[in-house]
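cron nightly-structures :: item 1 of 1
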Amino acid sequence: MRGARLIRRIAASVGHRAHRTKLVAERAWIGMENARTRHHGASDLLILDDCFPNVLSAFRMAEFTAYLQDFPTAQVHSTGSALSQYSTLPESIRRFHRAHPEWAGRVRRFHPQRRLNGTLAYLVFLMNAHFYIETLEQRALPFVFTLYPGGYFHLNDPVSDGKLKRVLSSPMFRKVIVTQRITQDYLLQKGWCAPDQIEYVFGVVTPSDRLAAVGPPRKYGVNKETIDLCFVAHKYMPRGIDKGYDRFIETACALSRRHPQARFHVVGPFDESDIDVRDIRDRVTFHGTQPTEFFPDFYAGMDIILSPNAPFILAAGAFDGFPTGCCVEAGLCGVAVFCCDELRQNDGHFRDGEEIVLIPRDAAGICCAIERYLADPNRLARLARDGQRAFQRVYDLDRQMAPRLNVLRSLSGKGAERVGELCRTV
């Protein structure tokens, strides 16, 4: 026993010394790096993040690579704190640079001692803006951030409000991009920033060019006998209740009893242990968490994506964007989107019943909405087709990127020329 304790103490001491040696070497390296770049010109855009370059964050890959393409000296500095369950940050950066050698050296690990010399910084989500706010102020970096739903942004929550007020009251704050009308109204109601400091751009940047570039989907009643319904989401809480996974399984069980041709698919970190699926065990397939490349072929065989998500379940004041990112990707691939809109965020972008179907959250109501289309496969095919056109219109890469680029280019001093040119080259 004494020998074992001694060995553990020695190992801990050696590990501690090795860690300290690594930290000293790292600081020395960053010091030399800062000295080498001291006389370099300022970067036209510095992107500060916690996740990039994680391939599972499709919107970041689409948006941030667009900025790297458009801003010749742009850099991304990432903590990688949101990467731990997928891969290490050094591994992700090496993989990204191998895939994009033209941007080699422009994606780096954030370090508080690393020199950040730029004319403008950009961030996404409240959690990142608040995490980096002191760095931004210490380095006198003006910044723009996108206030997406999620990322610790909760309506009428004291903690969230405190963080948001801190960010918006910073002398370095220049503009906030909001993607939902409810967010814009909330900021104006609070009076934390002027109307001209808010840029409203409905939606999210999506790799729409990659998702839409697939053949025509296989449709129920047209060229296949099964009706395939899917649920796609990340799990942020037990049983995925905020995303409506429980309602999806309840709906699937009800539909399976009346429609033997129904098949169900789940994409995300869900399995049989989350909710009892014995009643549909032979009809449900769990696909796990998947990258963007998985979805075009997957969605080609899907007829309906079901999203019975609801606000204020994950946390008081927490809500999703509308439609969820998973619904956006499915819609772009020609899948009929059946989703909830408890906060009325649609804002007239999609015609209910023609381009999208807005559903209640109870399984009986969801089944009723779905069965109206199962009774008429041609109507379901028309809904999917017209919905795909609507999603392609709203989430076109040029359309989503142009206003964002206008904001960043004007504040970085680049002006607004060439705004649409970049998107067609990404």
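cron nightly-structures :: done
The chain has two domains: 39-206+397-423, 208-394.
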